[in-house]
Amino acid sequence: MSSSIVKQALEIVDRDDLRQQRYRQKKEKKAKDVLAAKHLKDLHGSKKLTISELRKTFTPKEEIYEKNLKKLALLRKITTVQIDEEIRNQIIERSVTKRPITSKSKKKKDKQTVFTEEDFKKFEEEYTGE
Fold it and tell me: How many Cα atoms sit within 13 Å of 114 on the Cβ side?
């Protein structure tokens, strides 16, 4: 086969592939355009607002803080749980370190045996046979 015949055959095959690719691209573009149009509608909205109108809709941080403080004050009035100083310090320590509090190991008591020194001496004498 000559190279010209091979080129012509490849062009025919490529045309079919190009048509299919273009068809897919057009289909994808239409889908993207529809999605983009819906997205733009959502972004724009039906009503245009000025900056001053937007500021009225958003609450400033100071007002949010005041509301939260009022809620905390109400909670304080409602709760009657008494917390001793040790638990308060643990809560503060936990909030500062942001880690759970490790329990402090208790001092180990000296191990006591049931047997006295006299019992050990008697056992030793019996065992050794003296």
Answer: 0
The three-state secondary structure class of 73 is helix
CA 31 – CA 24 distance, rounded (Å): 11
Give the C-alpha separation, 115 to 124, whole Å. Answer: 13
Closest among 124, 90, 3, 39 to 11, alpha carbons compared? 3
Q: What is the pLDDT of residues 2-47, one digit of tens each?
A: 788 777 777 776 777 777 788 888 888 877 777 666 666 655 556 7
Per-residue confidence (pLDDT) for residue 78, from 0 to 100? 80
**Are the C-beta atoms of 101 and 94 separated by less than 8 Å?**
yes
CB 119 within 8 A of CB 113: no
Please state whether the predicted TM-score (pTM) of the whole model is above 0.85.
no
Task: Report the helix count and the strand count for the chain, using DSSP H and E.
Answer: 5, 0
What secondary structure letter does DSSP report for 2?
Answer: -
